[in-house]
Design brief:
Chain A is built from 11 helices and 9 strands. Chain A is an alpha/beta fold. Chain B has 2 domains: 231 residues, Thiamin diphosphate (ThDP)-binding fold, Pyr/PP domains (Rossmann fold, 3-Layer(aba) Sandwich), CATH 3.40.50.970; 131 residues, 3-Layer(aba) Sandwich (Rossmann fold), CATH 3.40.50.920. Chain B has a 7-stranded mixed beta sheet with strand order 3-2-4-5-7-6-13, with helices on both faces. In chain B, strands 10-12-11-14-15 form a 5-stranded mixed beta sheet, sandwiched between helices. Classes of the chains: A alpha/beta, B alpha/beta. Strand 2 of chain A pairs parallel with strand 9 of chain B.
């Protein structure tokens, strides 16, 4: 009995997550991305002033998992919807949570325009190189040669073109304040991802403009791999094409210490 | 207040401001652009929100997000731009949020032209976007009504958590006439309980239009329909002219109704007992009033600036009790009062019929008059 009473709780659910079992597949890193986002918002005491914008794709039900106000956007339109929320509620923490099909394909206009406007929102961008929710079709981020259900012989760049490096592209926009890419394939990178999210949300809290953290993520089910194989694939196949790094860090961001 | 000489688009914009508009999101398109231009100056000087969006898709989704916060919010566009907004309109309707839109219709289909038209009747009144939803649609016929009905649009949208759309044409958007603006009203400071503004001291509020369980979706569909039946019961508006002793009547809305009224007056001067019925709410449609008219009239002439869109809604309620004829000018043309008078005289001479479809008879007359078409 005494032994039990001496137990110390060292890890619990942040107050920004609901007690809800997610629908994500085993081994998918969406859960990690949710957890990191929720931890950062809890640490910033943001539960009562956060408004999330869910997108269309696997993260469509994100609003069930985060324990604060949430709205759900049409496919690709989350940055526009977040603009509407943020302009009316400038002192709230407003963020979108979007996958690569949503953000880099159908929603390219909305994300570019929001970044160019310097819209004071944060974007959590999940890049897993395919459309997960609809069963693993080719996305703009699908790697050359990668087999998907709509590139059954591997992405042929002659007919399907080349992947889009979103962070690099958005970094060219003067309106973007903080644009970085991180990966969720191992503990070190996960820690780096959390720190980047903290900076991104702090950029917004201080009214410094558009921030985005791209997170390289796994999709074991649609990739046809085990969770461990998926993590290895991120490290060996995705990172060479999508290098982890800081693509836009406006000088003012240097003042943020987290 | 006194009357001022006001351009339609500007009058609507300033009226919206005075009715407490908190945010406007739009995209330039002729013939509604002055509305956006005016608010680009006016809203910031009042410390309110104005954003010129990247597209109509962007604009409608900014409205969607802003509506989630319980704010009084609107956008405006013209026909091709409204086509792009339909995705967002369906989502806003599916999420049961209030939002106001102005459609300053132009000629079409396709890129068409920038001349006045009523081509969006079906697109707006009968939905346009996917799914069963029912926007409230108001059709002013002059600038004073446009001012008054933009205020009514906000009231009705918020009362019924519904879309409310002011449907006008390029003529009403562009023309100037004397009208009186409302007094400046205070901007909202108290928000409805459903507004997503941060979960301070409460459970989260979620705004979504996804109901993955079809039974939940069906419940939502039925809830939306129930609310619409309440709108139908309480909010139908129309105006009648010279109907008491009429043997014939024109049914027309907006600019077409205004021009038709001139023809009706000329016909009255010529001794023809014709009146006019002008729907102000195109949705909810004044079906019962039109049914009653059709029971006592000998003939009805529907006049529209399209190829006969409201015509179908009229026919659905006349049930062949009265002969219905149609006169339309699609493609960005405004009918002339003289041409409508000719149609009235034709009907008064007994040249209307219950056989066939009035659109077919009209097309035959139009093609005969335009052999090159």
């Amino acid at each position: 009995m005494d032994e039990f009473s001496k137990e110390t709780l060292v890890y619990e659910r942040p107050n920004t997550l609901t007690d809800f079992t997610t629908h994500y597949c085993p081994g998918c890193t969406h859960g990690i991305a949710h957890r990191l986002t929720a931890e950062v918002l809890e640490e910033m005491n943001a539960r009562e002033r956060a408004v999330g914008v869910a997108s269309v794709g696997c993260s469509v039900f994100a609003y069930n998992y985060f324990n604060f106000d949430f709205v759900q956007a049409p496919h690709g339109r989350a940055p526009a919807m977040a603009t509407g929320v943020k302009r009316l509620l400038p002192d709230r923490i407003v963020f979108t949570y979007q996958g690569d099909g949503d953000l880099a394909s159908i929603g390219m206009s909305e994300i570019v325009a929001a970044a160019a406007r310097g819209e004071n929102i944060t974007v959590v961008f999940i890049n897993n190189t395919n459309y997960g929710m609809t069963g693993g079709q080719m996305a703009p981020t699908t790697l050359p040669g990668q087999v998907t259900t709509s590139s059954p012989h591997g992405r042929d760049v002659e007919t399907a073109g080349f992947p889009i490096r979103v962070s690099e592209m958005l970094s060219t926009l003067d309106g973007a304040t903080y644009v970085v890419r991180r990966s969720l394939h191992d503990p070190k990178n996960i820690r780096m991802a959390k720190k980047a999210l903290r900076i991104a949300f702090t950029v917004q809290e201080r009214g410094l403009g558009f921030s985005m953290v791209e997170l390289l993520s796994t999709c074991p089910t649609n990739w046809g791999m085990t969770p461990m194989e998926s993590l290895h694939w991120v490290e060996t196949k995705m990172i060479p094409y999508y290098p982890v790094g800081d693509y836009k860090v406006a000088p003012v961001v240097a003042e943020i210490k987290v | 207040m006194t009357k001022q000489l006001l351009k339609g688009n500007v009058a609507i914009a300033e009226a919206a401001v005075r009715y407490g508009l908190q945010a406007y999101f739009g995209y330039p398109i002729t013939p509604q652009t002055e509305l956006l231009e005016y608010l680009s100056k006016r809203m910031p000087e009042l410390g309110r929100v104005f954003v010129q969006a990247e597209s109509e898709l962007g604009a409608v989704n900014m409205v969607y997000g802003a509506a989630c916060t319980g704010a009084r919010v609107m956008s405006s566009s013209s026909s091709p731009g409204v086509s792009l907004m339909l995705e967002g309109l369906s989502y806003i309707a599916g999420t049961e949020l209030p939002a106001v839109f102005v459609d300053v219709m132009r000629g079409g289909p396709g890129l068409g032209n920038i001349a006045p038209s009523q081509q969006d009747y079906n697109q707006i009144v009968h939905g346009g976007g996917h799914g069963d939803y029912y926007p409230i649609v108001l059709a002013p016929a002059n600038i004073q009504e446009a001012i008054d009905y933009i205020g009514l649009a906000f009231t009705l949208a918020e009362k019924y958590r519904s879309l409310a759309i002011l449907l006008i044409d390029g003529c009403l958007g562009q023309m100037m006439e004397p009208a009186e603006l409302p007094e400046m009203q205070p901007v909202r400071t108290v928000y409805p309980a459903w507004a997503a503004r941060g979960a301070a001291g409460r459970e989260p509020i979620i705004h979504t239009s996804i109901y993955l369980n079809p039974l939940d979706q069906e419940k939502t569909n039925l809830r939306i329909l129930s609310r619409w039946r309440e709108v139908q019961a309480k909010e139908i508006r129309f105006r009648g002219y010279y109907l008491d002793d009429a043997k014939y009547a024109i049914i027309a809305f907006g600019t077409a109704g205004r021009v038709a009224l001139s023809a009706v007056r000329a016909a009255r001067n010529a001794g023809i007992k014709v009146g006019m019925f002008r729907p102000i709410t195109l949705a909810p449609f004044p079906a019962q009033a039109i049914r009653e008219l059709s029971e006592r009239l000998e003939g009805i002439l529907v006049v529209e600036m399209n190829s006969g869109q409201m015509l179908e809604d009229v026919l659905a309620n006349t049930h062949n009790r009265a002969a219905v004829e149609f006169y339309g000018r699609p493609g960005g043309n405004i009918p002339l009062a003289d041409d409508i008078l000719t149609e009235i005289k034709r009907i008064a001479q007994g040249k209307s019929t219950l056989n066939g479809h009035p659109r077919d008879r009209w097309v035959d007359r139009m093609l005969a008059a335009n052999p090159g078409a």
